[in-house]
Amino acid sequence: MYWWYAISPPDVLRLRGLLDQCGHARDARCNCSVHTSLRKSIRSLWAGIRHSYTSNQKAQFAWLSVNSQNGEGELLLDVQRGIAHAR
Hints:
Blueprint: E1 4-7, H1 9-19, H2 33-42, E2 60-69, E3 72-77, E4 83-85
Parallel strand pairs: 1-2
Antiparallel strand pairs: 2-3, 2-4
């Protein structure tokens, strides 16, 4: 099953900036404060998006935003942009 999320280009840059603080930016198992806070935040992202069984379907997706405070990162649902549909 797939659940889809999108991140705007400015939020991608913000996320990259956070991960640049880590010497192991591409290691999802890293235990630095940035990786730990990002892993913690993704546990609550579901947001009611219907899942799809294949990546070929036109699925719903939710927009995410990146919040960065005190050198930690948090992925949040962007409630202003909400849920969208792939075209």
